[in-house]
Every structure is written in structure tokens, then in C-alpha cells.
Amino acid sequence: AIFFGLVCGIATGTLSYYLLALRLNPAKEILTAIKRGQFYVVYQPVVDATTLRMTGLEVLMRWRHPVAGEIPPDAFIQFAEAQQLIVPLTRHLFSLIERDAPQLQAVLPVGAKFGINIAPGHLHAASFKEDMRKFNAALPPNHFQLVLEITERDMLKEQEANSLFEWLHQEGFEIAIDDFGTGHSALIYLEHFTMDYLKIDRGFVNAIGTETVTSPVLDAVLTLARRLNMSTVAEGVETPEQAAWLREHGVNFLQGYWISRPLTLDEFIQWRPTAHS
Ligand code: C2E
Ligand code: CA
Ligand code: CA
Ligand code: CA
């Protein structure tokens, strides 16, 4: 795929890069993959920064293609959006989660936060509210706290966002702003809308312990989150030093390889937060 990609000038990491070398039509492949059950989900634990107890998880989608192998979500989500396939794909994701829900319920406390990435293309879709309602209704009642993760770079226009976020809160969803610090319109969003969690992008977390002075932007972000009464989640925590720094600086929740990699359902239900510490 690499060689073919270079020859044809296909951008590395895109879905075409994975599939075109095989003379496969990407849009068709996504629909086939839904039908044949090639997509699956993994669950990454999120823990309380102080107690290291699990407080929830993030759902991440995976695609095991029979010929191309594992295709990362960064490659197929964007493509699905561009091809108007994000709604069927997300509905399929919901059905996979619904299937796992009874087993997840057995190992997660009431109120466990259940993070799901929502692509902007779905947020804008006419069926969005109905899709979310159906999904919520199909889960065990009052067990999970659904948290919709939305990236700041893809946010809606103010007016739209205002009413949509209000609706989501009324329906019992919480909202997290994802990849915080990598987009542009962040500050205005934080001022005007109630968002429940701010997820600090891995890029900032990476820098902890490698640079002599940690990012003044990260310091400012944490101060801001506190002032706005938002809880903070640090992504991509890979070392105990990073975890310690984040805890000392008041970050509420940690997620990353140091705590756990994303796990299959079977691995997840076996997982114990104390295993690593
Ligand atoms: P994201 O929402 O920022 O998800 C976190 C990504 O960081 C995941 O990559 C996860 O596997 C990875 N990660 C977690 N801990 C660590 C760590 O300690 N170190 C490093 N280096 N990486 C870590 P993944 O699963 O490849 O997903 C990439 C992106 O694809 C996600 O970024 C999200 O934007 C998107 N995505 C994944 N699943 C879905 C989905 O079901 N729906 C939508 N709309 N987007 C999804
Ligand atoms: Ca996310
Ligand atoms: Ca993120
Ligand atoms: Ca990301």
C-alpha cells in the first residue's frame, strides 16, 4: 500500500491509501464492512486522577478488513463523513455498543461515564436527535452517563450549538470538548456553552517530562477549565511522571496507555485498575 500510495500520490493514512492498492472502492467497502461485521469496538478505561479508580471509558471504533488488515479510525471516519456514510456507520457503532451493554453494565458502577466520539457530520444530520434518543433508550436504563465527545475544530455555529447542547443536556447527555488545544474557536465556545468536560489533547501531555518547562498553554487551559467549572480529562497519559504532574495540577481524570490501552470487551471485563500501579 505504501508503494502504491507513493506512485499514485495518495495521501498517507487516508482510506484510499489503505484500499486503493487493492482496487477496492472505499465507499462500497464501508457498507460491505457494516454488513459483514468487520467493524468492532474497543473500550479504553478512564480513571480518577487521584484514586486511579475507573470512572468510565471511551469507545473507539476499529475496522479489521479481510485484505487490507487493520484500518485506523483516523482513516475511515473522515472518509465516511465525506461520503455521507457517517450516519449509517455511527448507527452501526451504536448497535455494537448495545450488544455489549449488558456485559459492560456488570463491571461498571452506576453513573459510569461512557464516552462516545461524535463526528461533526452526524451532529449536523437531520436524524441526529432521533439517533441519540434511540441509542439511549436501547441501553440499560440509568446506568451509564453518556458523554458525547466533540472536537473543537468541528464545532457548530453559535446559534445551532446553543440549542443542540441544551437539548442534549435535557435528554441527559453530557458533552466533552475533545482534543482541546488543537483547534481555533475554543475560547468562545468555552465562554458561551455549557460543556461538561474538557479533554486535553495528547500533544500537551506528551510534552510533560520531556521539556524543561511545561507548556504555558497547558497551565492556562487548566486554570481556565477550573474557572469555568469544567472537569478535565488528560488523554495519552503514558508515564507515571505525566500522571503525577497532571494530578498535582488538578486534572480530574486520566486516560492513556499508562492506565490501559483500548481493550476488547473480553479484556475490558477482566481489567482491574490496580493492575498497573
Ligand atoms: P480521539 O477521540 O482523540 O481518541 C483517542 C486516541 O488516542 C485513540 O486513537 C486512542 O487509541 C489513542 N490513545 C489512547 N491513549 C493513548 C496513549 O497513551 N498514547 C497514544 N499515543 N495514543 C493513545 P484511535 O483509536 O486510533 O482513534 C483516533 C481518532 O479516531 C479518535 O481520536 C477519534 O477522533 C476518531 N474515532 C475513533 N473511534 C471513533 C468513533 O467511533 N466515532 C468517531 N466519530 N470517531 C472515532
Ligand atoms: Ca475522543
Ligand atoms: Ca481526543
Ligand atoms: Ca484525535
Automatic annotation (TrEMBL):
Where, by residue number, does the polypeptide cross the bilayer? 1-20
Which organism was this protein described from? Pseudenterobacter timonensis
Q: Where is it localised?
A: Cell membrane
In terms of the parent sequence, the fragment covers 239 to 515 of 521
Q: Does the keyword Membrane apply?
A: yes
Alphabetic keyword roster: c-di-GMP, Cell membrane, Hydrolase, Membrane, Transmembrane, Transmembrane helix
Which stretches make up the EAL domain?
Answer: 23-276
Bilayer topology annotation: Multi-pass membrane protein
Give the protein's recorded name: cyclic-guanylate-specific phosphodiesterase
